[in-house]
Amino acid sequence: MSDVQSYANEPSKKKGELIWANIIFFGLSFLAAVTLVPWYGMEYGYHWSTWMWGIGLWLFSSTSISMGYHRLWSHRAYEANAFLRGLLAFGGCLALQNSALHWSSDHRMHHKHVDHDEKDPYSASLGFWHSHIGWILKRRDNGRYNEQYDRCPDLKRQKIVMFQHKYYWVLSIGLNVAVPALLGLAYGHFWEMMLVAGVFRLVWSHHLTFFINSLAHIWGSRPYTEENSARDNFILAVLTGGEGYHNYHHKFQLDYRNGIRWWHFDPSKWWIKSLSWIGVTKNLKVAPAHKIERAKAETLLLKAKEKTAHLPNAEEIMQKLHDEYDQLVAHMAEFYEAKKAWIESKKADLAHEIAEEKAHLIENYEQFKLKLEEQKLNWMKLARQYA
Ligand SMILES: [Zn+2]
Ligand SMILES: [Zn+2]
Q1: Ligand 1: distance of its center to the CA of 322 in Å?
Q2: Is beta strand 281-282 parallel, antiparallel or unpaired with respect to 79-80?
Q3: Mean pLDDT of 147-171
Q4: What is the number of alpha carbons within 13 Å of residue 136 lying toward its C-beta?
Q5: Quick one: pLDDT at residue 269?
Q6: What radius of gyration do the chain's Cα atoms show?
Q7: In the predicted model, what is the mean pLDDT of residues 120-125?
Q8: Are 87 and 69 in contact (CB under 8 A)?
Q9: Distance 202 CA to ligand 1 centre (A)
Q10: What angle do CA 326, 327, 332 make, to 5 degrees?
Q11: What gap in Å lies between CA 276 and CA 270, rounded to an integer?
Q12: pLDDT number for residue 9
């Protein structure tokens, strides 16, 4: 069986009526993007400004989905001021992926029931096609179509979200036509702007976002959890403004970051963090470092266990793995405790006479840090042999 959990609901793949409006729209736009766009280019050529606007509108709309629909509204991983919320709602209209309220409702369902054939709207358990786009083309009876957005009472109280939801189709269709048309008129390249900044940009950004539901549940590594099919994938992170660290995201969905190391390619994280320095965003949530480290070690332990279970000396290996793992967890606890004590002492306005105590805390912290680093090396050396 694949890593994706199957709930043996084979008939569910077949039932459900086709949504013709979506089939025609996605079919025609895709066809135009792969035929008309290259044909026009070969026949008449494109001006560089057309591609500049195409790329600009793609980045703006996909960042609105990642920073807005996903991290701000679906997960409430940070807070944003009204200006940024308005801008993200506007960009969400250009992305043409339904309203923030609708998108978030689906997405909360996805996290809650990930990989469940019926309850996950774009479950990877039903294969690439279904999780990529099939779920948009076919109505399935899982309560998504007559819902009252009960999963999002918080969003129902937000004026910007509800305004966007109410006027979504007028706004998004209007903007997707008006923005490239006005740009085309302004630059005197009407048709090429319609094709590139309108059609091609939309199809391109649609499918890249859809890859997070499909490819990011199929292709990549699972360092933080193997309980679901979500993967970390650098290439997808680059293509989707940081959304490709999907294994981490499914484990720690409240974190405003998807790529947690400073060098992980996650522009949405960089935007959110930078905007917090000027007060546009605030209350950025991050998962506690010890929980992240522990999840990684636990996943490695499980992988090693699984891979060695059939060996004749499995019991002996298991014992060794457990010993090293237990030591690692103990060192982690010591280190994070010492770190917490040190940080608290830095915050507190300590009197001069307890400076000695402060020095002791720093010493403790440094010492436990070294011990943990050493144990991490031992652990990795052992676990990597088997995992
Ligand atoms: Zn997912
Ligand atoms: Zn999510």
Answers
A1: 31
A2: antiparallel
A3: 94
A4: 21
A5: 97
A6: 25
A7: 94
A8: no
A9: 22
A10: 100
A11: 10
A12: 41
Nearest 5°: phi and psi at 284?
-70, 125
Nearest to residue 335, comparing CAs of 296, 371, 363?
Answer: 371
Both structure tokens of 362: 């720093």
Identify which of 256, 260, 228 has the alpha carbon closest to the alpha carbon of residue 245: 260
For residue 315 the two structure tokens come to 């019991």
Ligand closest in space to the Cα of 120: 1
Beta strands in 258-374 (DSSP E): 281-282
Which residue did the predictor score with more confidence, 370 or 41?
A: 41
Output the CA 106–ligand 2 centroid distance in Å. 10
β-strand partners of 369? none
Is the pLDDT at 11 greater than 50, yes or no? no
Q: Is residue 13 scored above 50 in pLDDT?
A: no
For residue 120, report the distance from its CA to the centre of ligand 2, in Å.
12
Instruction: Provide the b/e sequence for 233-270 (b: ≥16 CB within 10 Å).
Output: beebbebbbbbbbbbbbbbbbebbbbbbeeebbbbbbe
Q: What is the pTM of this model?
A: 0.87
Residue bearing the bigger pLDDT, 120 or 386: 120
Q: Give domain limits for the chain.
A: 10-282, 289-386
